[in-house]
Amino acid sequence: MTFLFFEMKTVCYNSYLYFANALSDSLKAMGHSIEFFRMSDHSLEDLDMYVDKEFDAIIDFNSDLPRVIMDDNSYFLDHVSAPFFDFILDHPLYHHDSLKHKIKNFNVICLDSNHKNYIEKYYPHIKSVLVSHVTGELAFGKKDIDWESFNDRPYDLLFSGTYTDPMRIETAIHKIPDFMVETTHSLIDMLLKDPGLTIESAVEELANTEIYDYINSNLPLHTQSFYLADAYVRSLNRKNLVLALDKSGYDFHLFGSLWDELDLKHAKLHREVPFNLSFTLFAKAKISVNIMPNFKMGCHDRVFSSQLNGAISLTDPTASLLREYKDMESIVYFDLNNMDGILEKIDSCLGNYDKALKIAKNGHDIASHNHTWANIANSVIEFIKRDPN
């Protein structure tokens, strides 16, 4: 099979570039042909070279390609003989401006079963949706995990990610139209009260009341417009998690931007690192901490990347993780509604070397069997083969 990959932008510590290269490398190792279009080497005008060409699939991550219009107002993607697969890494609400376009052969790969249901319900022109995941790999230069030196890893606790002060988002909320401010705050209250509630379910619940009936006029558009509610809850949960970890008394290392804005007493702060170098950090950690970006039936790549590098993954649970991983056996779960309880879990692991090592090994076994780029490449191939066109 022949694949055309696009690299149109770089964000999130170059994660998009890593994901595209990792997936394409796995497909290439399976014997498939890969061609790349990189904005670092081209301009948008160069897209014309693909008009009337054929590929088995076009793949992009969090793509803007569905918005690209030709001189005759037709879609660029409709001029290439290939199914288009947008691999979206966030909730679909953040991609409404791309998903709404009615490309002839538009397909989506997403990270959460709830996201799949949302896309199928509100974007019926999208031909098919696959639930997959993204992952990492063993740190560069390492051939295997040195389990004998697990207890010598320099970081007891590691968290890698950016800090956003919730008050920054609150300020942004007060800049939107007044009638939306009230709705946004209602959504925040609902999401904080029930950590199992999705943003789309909360919006739909409000849409069923007379007070908020205006939402029904275009529900996916309004769900997008309430992204600040989702962003606020994510930032507040991340802040509360790190404040709890800061009380642990263990050697706690934070890598990422803007953590100096938070009043932390014990954490050691480090600058952000490019995505592909984060695997080296996980390989130095006994426990690598994750908090989901409000995923309820999917997973963040940080969980698998940590496990592939021999660290215990400490995370809030999702339905997909609960099916595969058992608490305190192959993973460690914490409760978003009980951040202080996380300290007992950490004590239980770091106070018992044999237990910690067992959890780390079991998590590594599951991730290395089920959550590699080879697994993802196989899923993508099977997904494409099921498509009769």
Describe the structure in your own words.
The chain is an alpha/beta fold. It folds into 2 domains: 2-135 and 375-386, Rossmann fold (3-Layer(aba) Sandwich), CATH 3.40.50; 136-371, Rossmann fold (3-Layer(aba) Sandwich). It is 38% helix and 14% strand. It has helices at residues 15-29, 96-99, 113-122, 166-173, 178-193, 199-207, 219-225, 227-246, 278-282, 301-308, 319-324, 342-350, 353-370, 373-386; strands at 2-7, 33-38, 57-61, 84-87, 106-110, 128-131, 155-160, 252-255, 268-270, 285-289, 312-315, 332-333. α5 packs across α8 (227-246). The two termini are 14 Å apart.
How does the SSE layout of this entry go?
Layout: E1 2-7, H1 15-29, E2 33-38, E3 57-61, E4 84-87, H2 96-99, E5 106-110, H3 113-122, E6 128-131, E7 155-160, H4 166-173, H5 178-193, H6 199-207, H7 219-225, H8 227-246, E8 252-255, E9 268-270, H9 278-282, E10 285-289, H10 301-308, E11 312-315, H11 319-324, E12 332-333, H12 342-350, H13 353-370, H14 373-386
Parallel strand pairs: 1-2, 1-3, 3-4, 4-5, 5-6, 7-8, 7-10, 8-9, 10-11, 11-12
Helix pairs in contact: 1-14, 4-8, 5-6, 5-8, 10-13
